[in-house]
Amino acid sequence: IINSGGHRIGFAFKTTNPRRLNMDPPNGVLDPKEAINIAISCDAFDPAAEATNNDRVTVEWTNTPEGAAKQFRREWFQGDGMVRRKNLPIEYNM
């Protein structure tokens, strides 16, 4: 993730299948122009026994309040502030 903007942002990942898909780190804070690598991993599963067509990862981000510490807060995503969202479909190599 790259924060290409001029404000500090908080980000959080969600998934439609938390038993199978893991993100590291799952959330955090980025200063302007700062970048971070996110590892997305998948636990072993039987694709013949489980549906995979709806699996996706969603990243949400929002500007942090002025003067906020560089520590992620879930409450930044609640209330009146603008939350941006990007859905990323998962394609498995089977």
TrEMBL record:
Q: Which PROSITE patterns match?
A: MSP
Statement: the UniProt record of this protein carries the keyword Transmembrane? no
Q: Which domain of life is it from?
A: Eukaryota
Subcellular location per UniProt equals: Cell projection, Pseudopodium; Cytoplasm, Cytoskeleton
The record's keywords, sorted A to Z, are:
Cell projection, Cytoplasm, Cytoskeleton
Instruction: Provide the primary localization.
Output: other
Q: Which GO terms describe its cellular component?
A: cytoskeleton; pseudopodium
Provide the MSP domain boundaries.
Answer: 1-93
One Pfam family name from the record? Answer: Motile_Sperm
**Is Metal-binding a UniProt keyword of this protein?**
no
Q: What does this protein do?
A: Central component in molecular interactions underlying sperm crawling. Forms an extensive filament system that extends from sperm villipoda, along the leading edge of the pseudopod.
Q: Can you say what this protein is called?
A: MSP domain-containing protein
The organism named in the record is Meloidogyne incognita
